[in-house]
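Justification of resources, computational component.

The compute hours requested in this renewal are based largely on the per-chain cost of generating structure records like the one below. Each record pairs the submitted sequence with a full structure-token output. That output is archived, and it is also reused by downstream analysis tasks.
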Amino acid sequence: MHRLLTVAALGGALVTYAQSPSQAAQPKHSFEVVSVKPSAAANDSTSVNTTPYRVRCENVLLRQILMMAFPIRSESQIENMPDWAKSERFNIDAKVDEETAAATKGLPREDRQRWQQEMMQSLLEDRFHLKFHWGKKELPVYVLTVAKNGSKLKATVLPPPPPGVDPNAKPRDPGTSFSTNNGHMVVTNGSMEMFANQLSHMTEMDSRVVLDRTNLPRRFDWTLDWSPERQQNSFRGADSGNPTPAVDTSKPSLFTALQEQLGLKVEQDKAPVDLLVIDHLERPTEN
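The structure output for this chain reads:
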């Protein structure tokens, strides 16, 4: 039985940000201590748990680590993966030094998550001897657009400034709250770019990248209920170890739910997509 891939990423949902590939050449942050071992698990149950001080991954595939570390949305964006790397699983325990943990606490959530991406990149380069370059290729994609009858999304209303603060001052952005589990999604203050990114991870998208073409620049609150085609990855906290709940087949498909509940639709297309092209990769030596 498949279990949830569950992530609590530095206090929020793990999101892939629009980091340009050229940034990969700049000096990166790194973990202080890293343990990487082959997984002896006899199943494909995966768990990932991150805090400002530590990242623990159990029974993960290398492609899952790559997708945590780089600005890619789908495994279709990874090329030249060695055969062994497609099936072998690993347990990773990586710890951050106190100075770095303290520094990240004062950063906005998005910046903290970028730091984590850089540390995961350093881990891959140091322990798996990863070498790569960026490419581009036209691939089948899905595009997220507004449906014929218009969007049904509710615009986010930011809270007023606290007492003593200039009422004309720009409200502080509280960040995005996001959770999804077994066909139930709740989002507060979410962008369509973020939503397209998350849709790219859904099983229904057949490993295609989803591009945002809604032309909706605002932030929105929404709830979405659908019947998953197969249980997709869920980013919502530490793995409880419980079996995956049964899917509610009374709910609509994801594609129908998007249109009926949010006034959005996804359509097939082709578009140039960034590729992470692997030049070299080695099995890690055990600690």
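The longest strand covers residues 264-280. Residues 21-132 form one domain.
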